[in-house]
DNA sequence: TTGTAGGCGTTATCAG
DNA sequence: CTGATAACGCCTACAA
């Protein structure tokens, strides 16, 4: 007769809230809302709610969020680090405690915490290899903070292929930046001044790749004839830009689904086995690259 | 000495969880993730957590979500209805109880529940007026389910302006559909067969407007020369498409912020005054319209 | 099998 | 003002 049990009382005694905590850098970036969508769907299927916090790409906010969530309201924490996150002590103190943690997409490699990752290294390798095959020799790359595996792995892939082809790594072609439009444009402008000039740009995301294409068009630089442009993530906007954006599809939604699935498994079994899962992606060729 | 109070026990006795429940149709649609971002930021500032559920534009899922949230885990509910939602009995039974409810963006007008809205009527009026001034006489419009105020209000605005200019409303130019690409393309194809032909399309969202532009280009229909295209929402992708999309900027993030702010006020004061707030928007002119 | 007491970690109340 | 205790609503263990 329509009795609604009080979840609070229930949770208090069972010590489980059936709620996942999620910390992501932003909700206004397609890849993150897509991953969150994957997290949410898998969680809902398993009867878990999702508590969402955004760090706004700010390290301090990420720390505050962790504090705010780690007070018995969640059964597990999913975290995708800020692009500027370089130290991870704030997370370390929670590792191995009652509440399991899973890092996804942007992870710290030197922490004993499970990870769900895009195939950044293979992606960067595939893209670099393809560009070299197309005749590019001065390939610029946009990366995030050096502490993040996403930057490290993509750089590894890039480096591997250049070395294989005996192309010297030029530090001037590597930009470690955040996502802001100004920083991206500035990096591109610096590259345009170089001689010998660059002939390709691999960008950290589709959105910045699209902005790069737009900027190059403004500067009357032909894409892909003069400079080929590649993105990461295969977002809708890449289909729309002219020339259409080539991109490494990181299988973004699947990353969220797997992260959700892994943490729920760890919650249910009570075993925090160190897991590291790389989600395969694939290259999507369009006009720009 | 680093004592962490147990929020569950605290909530059990104080009867407040400092958590907002949010039900939105999707996380993979820019406007919704943008509104959620606004909700989340305001909530975080006020010390509230956000519990997020997606209905995937499915009426039954929306009902299930409401059930799942209304069990003492949240202090207030924010809801944006499914595009197919036509009956609202599932919500009605929760109205006026302990937990306040605020509808946002897509709302039911005949329910005694507070609303935060885009200025759909004024937006449709402004766009229609502009198109008529540009010489358009056969203006097609894409709407959602008839039960939603978003459809009703936009139709009202459209109708008002056509009547003012003594242009007869042609039912064949009005499409009530959901967001799927196929439905949009089908509606456009039907319009293209009409004679006299259409000279403008007002779309329900920027994403579908962009898809309409792409489809028209495929069909070799010149935009804006033959058909002008307008969107709603002013998303990033509209800046990228060629020709760039004209759009009515509904101030999406602000809608989320205001909804969040209103429900928190209702929670804190304990007063569920019936509020209806329309967030003003503005027309953004680009090449397509 | 069915019923009841105790405890989860707080806050609030009521004596002292 | 301070300190003990009931109550929040549920689950579980144990007793009948």
Account of the 3D structure:
The structure is a homodimer of 289-residue chains. The longest helix of chain A is centred in the last third of the chain and has 18 residues, at 252-269. A six-stranded parallel beta sheet of chain A has the order 2-1-3-4-5-11, sandwiched between helices. The first copy, chain A, has a six-stranded mixed beta sheet with strand order 7-6-8-9-10-12, sandwiched between helices. The model of chain A has no long low-confidence stretch (mean pLDDT 95). The N and C termini of chain A lie far apart (63 Å). Chain A has helices at 7-14, 30-45, 59-69, 89-92, 120-133, 149-164, 181-193, 206-218, 236-240, 252-269, and strands at 19-24, 49-54, 76-79, 101-104, 114-118, 139-143, 174-176, 200-202, 228-232, 246-249, 276-279, 282-284. Chain A has 289 residues and is α/β, with parallel strands linked by helices. The first copy, chain A, is built from ten helices and twelve strands. In chain A, helix 2 packs parallel to helix 10 (252-269), helix 5 runs parallel beside helix 6 (149-164) and helix 7 (181-193) crosses helix 8. The structure holds a DNA duplex (16 and 16 nucleotides).
């Amino acid at each position: 007769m329509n009795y609604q049990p009080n979840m609070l009382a229930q949770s208090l005694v069972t010590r489980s809230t059936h709620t996942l905590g999620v910390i992501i850098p932003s909700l206004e970036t397609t890849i993150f809302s897509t991953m969150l969508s994957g997290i949410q769907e898998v969680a809902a299927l398993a009867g878990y709610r999702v508590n969402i916090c955004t760090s706004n790409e700010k390290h301090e906010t990420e720390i505050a969020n962790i504090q705010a969530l780690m007070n018995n309201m969640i059964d597990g924490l999913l975290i995708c680090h800020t692009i500027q996150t370089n130290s991870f002590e704030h997370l370390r103190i929670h590792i191995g405690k009652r509440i399991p943690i899973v890092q996804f997409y942007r992870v710290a490699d030197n922490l004993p915490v499970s990870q769900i990752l895009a195939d950044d290294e293979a992606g960067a390798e595939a893209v670099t290899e393809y560009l070299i095959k197309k005749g590019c020799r001065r390939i610029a790359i946009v990366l995030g903070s050096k502490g993040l595996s996403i930057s490290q792995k993509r750089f590894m892939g890039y480096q591997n292929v250049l070395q294989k082809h005996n192309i010297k790594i030029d530090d001037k072609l590597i930009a470690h930046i955040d996502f802001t439009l100004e920083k991206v444009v500035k990096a591109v402008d610096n590259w345009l001044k170089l001689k010998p000039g660059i002939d390709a740009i691999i960008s950290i995301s589709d959105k910045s790749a699209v902005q790069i294409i737009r900027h190059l068009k403004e500067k009357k630089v032909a894409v892909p004839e003069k400079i080929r442009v590649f993105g990461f993530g295969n977002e809708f906007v890449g289909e729309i830009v002219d020339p259409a954006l080539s991109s490494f599809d990181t299988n973004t939604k699947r990353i969220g689904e797997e992260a959700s699935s892994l943490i729920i498994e760890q919650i249910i079994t009570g075993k925090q086995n160190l897991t590291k899962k790389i989600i395969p992606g694939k290259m999507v060729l369009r006009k720009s690259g």
